[in-house]
Amino acid sequence: MKKAFIYLRKLGTLLCFIIFGFGSLAISVTVLPCLWLFFRNATQRRLLFTRIVRLSWCFFRKIMEALWLIKIQISPKDILTLSSATSTIVVANHTSLIDVIILVSLTKDATCITKGRLFQNPLIRYILANAFIGNDGDPIELINHATTALKSGYNLIIFPVGTRSQGEAMLRRGTAYIAMESLCDILVLRIDADPPHLRKGKGWRDAGEKRVVYNINIKAVLRAQKIVESEKSRNINARIITRRIKETLDSI
Question: Residues near 240 by Cβ (< 8 Å), separated by ≥ 6?
Answer without folding.
Answer: 176, 227, 232
